[in-house]
Amino acid sequence: MPNRNSNIYDLVTLSKNSISATDFLQLANSDSGRYSKVAMSTLFPSMATAGSTSEDLFVSVTNKNQLNFKGIKSAVTGVLTVTTLSNNIILTALEAGIDLSLCNNVTSAFLTAVDFTSIVTGECPVTNGGTGLSSIVKGAILYADEADSIKATSALATNGQILIGNATTGIPSIASITAGTNIAVVAGAGTITLNANQTNAEANFDLRNGADSTTYNIDTNNGEGYISGNGADGGLTVDNSARAYIGANGTKVFSEILTLAGNLRFTGASTIKPTAVASSAAGAALTVESGVAVNGAAGHLNINGGEATGSGAAGSIILTSGKSASGTDGNIQLKTHTAGGTATAGLTIAGDTQNVTIDTGDLVMSTGNIYMRGSSNPNIIKYQGTPADAGDNTDAVTAAQILKGIVTVNPGADRSKAVDASANLISGLSLNTDQDSFDFVFINLGEDSENRDITLTAGTDVTLVGSMHISSPDTADASIASGSAQFRIRRTGSAAVTLYRIA
Questions:
Q1: CA-CA distance, 259 to 246, in Å (whole number)?
Q2: Is 399 in a helix, a strand, or coil?
Q3: Rounded to an integer, what distance in angstroms lies between the CA atom of residue 226 and that of residue 219?
Q4: Tens of pLDDT, residues 225-268
Q5: Which residues contact 450 (CB under 8 A, 6 or more apart)?
Q6: Rounded to 10 degrees, what is the CA torsion of 209, 215, 216, 218?
Q7: Which run of H or of E encompasses 418?
Q8: 203 vs 271, more confident
Q9: Cα separation of 190 and 151, whole Å?
């Protein structure tokens, strides 16, 4: 009976390699309460090969439970490869690596070579790929005869002779080409020349040999010949680069794919556009350009609406950008060239919103007014950045600060500050022409009733008009001392400005 009270620490350690047939493992059944034993040696695996006359996949069992298996490899990797995929061993035969010369031709029925000097006797028949003829005379041509065999014609001994089919007999014969109307045949040694002498068309010329078949062309000799109305030079011609010219002979130029020496007129409503493209390819651009000049003035590009010679309305000029089914609609842009020669957008009309944006440059109106008549949007919306702080000091108020539109000062005491020189104001505010002006607001940020005032004084070549005194705000008398003032700077000369107090 086993000693169930034994302490595990009092037992002798037995290695698995020392386990014998007399060593057992004690088991207890929880249901019956019975004890039993299992021979420890039966718990370790063993291996055996079930197949007959086959190679073992295993090598041995070591350390009682270590199974040692053989690996699988290819003896010739160029013929067979061994790989593993998803725990599967994949054997792949490489057909390109098989050398048929090493194989048994009796079994596989292939040939490594054919020796006609020893294997083939007599003439090789047609069925075996030969001609069935023992000899062919010089100048003869092979053809299929009525017995579906190969025969040879007699020698072609006359210049211009060719083999011509015969639908009646089904057997071709040697003959010469005969001349037809307006055609002369000149037979030479190995040549046949057909000379056409067509001077007048007796029927329509169809440049197709048949429907959807080979087409033929008219050679203008690099633009020397014309299709004309009276046979004289002038009309339509094409050069060797497939460039066409329409017009008088004296003005002939091949500069583009089509050159017109005159006007282009349409008889009805018409559209000029490139061919549409498919898939995601970009559509072709269309450019209309006036004439280039080397030293003289280049040509103008004139787009004129149609004139109404009676009481009807004249034609408008309508520029419409392209529409996208699901992407962004096209814009309308007006471009000019910068000083560096780069085409730059000056004005853009957005495709989706119809917003008009002046991309570069200024909006200059020499005459006329600006009207805002939209009842829902009567105001001008303009950019206003962070106001400029001119500082609690006696430094001059610079053009860069005035350009911000709002200038602020929180004085610690009464301050006197000069306005920047006229040259800086003209340059910094872009007052490019006499009578150009710029408005700005000056705000005294002093506390209520501090009585700390700011006085603006004249800079170089600056004339002051109106009160230049900005009092600190006075809540009790805000109509008099609001703490802010509005000024206008007006250019009066190339180096002179006037500063007005306007509010």
A1: 6
A2: helix
A3: 10
A4: 998 888 889 899 999 999 999 999 888 998 889 988 888 888 88
A5: 472
A6: 120
A7: strand 415-418
A8: 271
A9: 23
Residue whose structure tokens are 């061993």: 89
Give the β-pairing of 454-457 and 469-470: antiparallel
Q: What angle do CA 93, 83, 58 make, to 5 degrees?
A: 105
Read off the tokens for 214.
């080979």
**Could you give the CA distance from residue 72 to residue 88 in angstroms, rounded to a whole number?**
12
**How far is residue 113's CA from residue 108's CA, in Å, rounded to a whole number?**
15
Cα distance between residue 288 and residue 282, in whole Å: 19
Looking at residue 180, its pLDDT comes to 78
Task: Please list the residues that pair with 489 across neighbouring strands.
Answer: 438, 499
For 27, the token pair is 């088991």
Residues 253 and 392: their CA atoms lie apart, in Å, by 75
Which residue is associated with the tokens 């602020």?
A: 408
Entry pTM: 0.50
What is the four-CA torsion angle of 341, 343, 346, 347, rounded to 10 degrees?
A: 170
**Separation of alpha carbons 244 and 112, rounded Å:** 61
Answer yes or no: is pLDDT of 4 > 70: no
Neighbour tally for 234: CB within 10 Å: 19
> 196: helix, coil or strand?
strand
Pairing of strands 150-152, 142-144: antiparallel
DSSP state letters, 81-134: EEEEETTEEEEEE-GGG--GGGS-HHHH---S---TTTS--SPPPGGGTS---S
Distances (CA, A) of 78 to 81, 98, 494: 7, 8, 91
Instruction: Judge whether residue 285 has pLDDT over 50.
Output: yes
Q: Provide the CA 133 distance to its chain's centre, in angstroms.
A: 63
Gap between the Cα atoms of 174 and 362, Å rounded: 87
Contacts of 159 (CB under 8 A, 6+ apart): 187, 188, 189, 190, 191
Place of tokens 């070579």: 113
CA dist., res. 126 & res. 224, Å (int): 55
Residue in the structure block whose two tokens are 């008549």: 373
Residue 124's identity, in one-letter code, is: C
Report the alpha-carbon distance of residue 394 to residue 403 in Å, rounded: 19
Tokens representing 440 are: 């700005």
Distance (Å, rounded) from C-alpha 222 to C-alpha 246? Answer: 14
What is the 3 state secondary structure string of 235-257? EEEECCCCCEEEECHHHCCCCCC
Q: What is the pLDDT of residues 156-168, one digit of tens each?
A: 778 878 888 888 8
What values do phi and psi take at 427, rounded to 5?
Answer: -75, -50
What span, in angstroms and rounded, lies between the C-alpha atoms of 433 and 399?
17
CA 130 to chain centre: 57
**How far apart are the C-alpha atoms of 337 and 343, rounded to whole Å?**
4
One-letter amino acid for residue 186 of the chain: V
Strand, coil or helix: 403: helix
Instruction: List all residues 6 or more positions away from 277 whose beta carbon is below 8 Å from its beta carbon.
Output: 283, 284
